[in-house]
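[agent] plan:
  1. take the single chain provided in the ticket
  2. run structure prediction with default settings
  3. attach structure tokens to the ticket
  4. add a short note for the reviewer (M.T.)
[agent] executing step 1
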Amino acid sequence: MSHSTAPGEATADGAGPTGMAPAPHIAPAAPAGSPTADGTPPDAPPDDGRDNRRRRDRKAAAARARASAPPGGVTWRHRLRRDRALVLMTLPALLLVLVFAYVPLLGNVIAFKEFDPYIGESFSESFELSPWVGFEQFQRMWGDPYFWSAVENTLVIFVIQLLFFFPVPILLALLINSIISPRVRAWTQGVLYLPHFFSWVLVITVFQQIFGGAGIIAQTMREHGGGGFDLMTDPGFFKFLVTFQMIWKDAGWGIIVFLAALAAVNHELYEAAAMDGANRWRRMWHVTLPALRPVIAMLLVLRVGDALTVGFEQILLQRTAVGTGASEVLDTYVWNVGLENGDFGYAAAVGIVKGIFGLCLVLIANKTAHLLGEQGVYRK
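[agent] step 2 finished; step 3 output follows
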């Protein structure tokens, strides 16, 4: 006897009523704004998986780096193997520095000899036959009044250049940075960069045509009944003259480093300072100058270390116009004593003293920068 089901009653196997298909199961609707099964919001754009792949790639690269590191840490051999491409790129520059900067240091031994290049048939034979004199060249230096006159002129020119030349690139960088128009800024930079590519012969010729005895200013004064005018042969003005020539030639080139430092300043700092009521001068004092302070400290240390080098070619071209008493510096003194008079041992001794003095100035200036809270040329 078969069991019959009432109309609309479900069978034991879960089927629908007799003669009808089972009703589909409908999941209850999720509340509005709830995340989907994969954890993403319902209104979020579809993710193409790129972010996930990037995260996986970064994790895999970090895992490979940890696996490739030696157990005892990263050694210099590991760094050399890792950065071999960069090392090969810098090898030509290192070879040039080695050949032209460090190998000639071996010749400083002639400062302890009475070197005569004509005593033998070759340089090596002359070097071997030249007698040793010990520290006699250095003792002679301390009693040489011409040496101390050259030191005095060098230090005076350095102080004048430090006071008048060093701040000019900073001021020009601040001025260019304040120009809004990119076209005007690029044109101004090009005009300021251009004199750097002129030779000192051309620069001195330009100054001669303007400030010389037959220059534009002197001719204009004579036409209006004035007297003579010649700054190019004035010994008292010579130290300021070489400083103004350096400002005109190299001040524009010196702003490159400061402009790069200014480009790294976060503009949100200027906006925050403006919202706090700071005017342009306050923003420059509290935002711009603190950003330039590390660069200024580093360049100042380098400039102090280069105090005894104040422009050999520039001064050599003008020393006959004003006399050696006003224009003789250490570089021209070494040239005059060593190459013109042939006293190579004494000239080498002067060069050694100049190098040691410059090294001491770098160390002192860098230590001072550390005391003032700056990094300087190198860290502590």
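[agent] step 4 note for reviewer: Residues 149 and 185 are 44 Å apart (CA to CA).
[agent] ticket updated
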